Amino acid sequence: MTGTRLRLVRWRATAPLLLFVVALVVLWVLFADALARRAAVATLSDALGTEVDIGSVRIHLAQARVEVGALAIADPRDSTRDAFEAGTMVFDLDPVPLLEKKFVVDELRLSGLRFGVVRQKPARAAKPGSSSAQLLHETEQWATDKFHYPTLALGRVDSVKALVLHPDQLGTIKAVRALAARSDSLKSGFEQSLARLNLAPLIDSSNALAARLSKADPRQLGLAGVKDAVTSAQQGIARIKQAQQDLATLDRTTRASVLALQQGLADIDAARQRDYAMARGLLDLPSFDAPDIGAALFGRKSIDYFQHAVYAARLIQRYVPPGLQPWNRPGPTRTRMAGTTVEFPKVAQYPGFLLRKGEVDLTAGNAGQNQLRADLSGVTSAPALYGHPATLVASGRLIGTDTITVDLHGLSRHFGSAPKDSVVAQVNGVTLAPISFASLPFTLHPGRSSVGFRFALAGDSLAGAWDVTADRASWSADSGGAQPQSVVQQAVWQAVSGLSDLRIHAQLGGTVDAPTLAVSSNLDDAVAARLKALAGQAIAAGEQRARSAVDSLVDAPVQQLKGSVGGVASEVSSRLPGAQGQLQSAQRQLEAAIQRLAGPAGGIKLPKF
Amino acid sequence: MLALLKLLQSIFKTLHSEGTPGQVAAGLVLGAGIGLTPLLSAHNLVLFAALALLNVSFGGGLLGIALFTPLGFSLDPLFDRIGLDLLHAPGLVGLWTSWYNTPLVPYTGFNNSVTLGSFVTWVVLAVPLYFLGRRGVTWYRANLAERVINSGLGKAVRASVLFNIYRWFRPE
Question: B169 and A16 in contact by Cβ < 8 A?
Answer without folding.
Answer: yes
